[in-house]
């Protein structure tokens, strides 16, 4: 029984390290892919007639992805708000890209989606301020 517990702990420790390495590898791939996409966008903007609003919004999306990766590396967790911000900017970019072919229904649905996502962000922020989660540091301070 004593050996089984030690074996389980050893296996659990190795699996946790493997998962951490997989996460770091995935974050590295996301970071490298984002850098490549941003360099490609900058190269395309330099070689074109000018910079459009959609180019700037796309660059903003890339920066949000960098912020997500950085936040995950710093805190080890990803706030739900970052993907929501990316979703709002993506919808706005889609509206601008399709500016000539948007129907009234598409405009209304897109605007409604942005409003709903913004309300979701506000609700999440309110919940975090009103009901903060207990972090590992706070738990260890309470125990000690």
UniProtKB/TrEMBL annotation:
Main location: membrane
Topology versus the membrane: Multi-pass membrane protein
Range of residues in the leader sequence: none
Localization of this protein: Cell inner membrane
Pfam families tied to this protein: PsiE
TM annotation in the entry: 21-43, 55-73, 82-99, 105-124
Biological processes, Gene Ontology terms: cellular response to phosphate starvation
Record InterPro entries: P_starv_induced_PsiE, P_starv_induced_PsiE-like
Any GO CC annotation of this UniProt entry: plasma membrane
Keywords tagged on the record: Cell membrane, Membrane, Transmembrane, Transmembrane helix
Domain of life: Bacteria
Similarity comment: family membership: Belongs to the PsiE family.
The protein's name in its UniProt record: Protein PsiE
Species annotation: Paraburkholderia silviterrae
């Amino acid at each position: 029984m004593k050996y089984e517990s030690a074996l389980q702990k050893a296996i659990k420790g190795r699996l946790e390290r493997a998962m951490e390495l997989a996460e770091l590898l995935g974050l590295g791939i996301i970071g490298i892919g984002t850098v490549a996409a941003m360099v490609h966008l900058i190269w395309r903007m330099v070689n074109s007639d000018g910079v459009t609003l959609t180019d700037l919004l796309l660059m903003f999306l890339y920066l949000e992805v960098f912020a997500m990766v950085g936040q995950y590396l710093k805190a080890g967790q990803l706030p739900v708000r970052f993907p929501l911000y990316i979703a709002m900017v993506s919808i706005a970019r889609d509206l601008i890209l399709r500016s000539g072919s948007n129907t009234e229904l598409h405009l209304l649905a897109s605007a409604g989606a942005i409003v709903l996502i913004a309300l979701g962000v506000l609700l999440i922020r309110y919940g975090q301020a009103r009901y903060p989660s207990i972090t590992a540091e706070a738990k260890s301070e309470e125990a000690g």
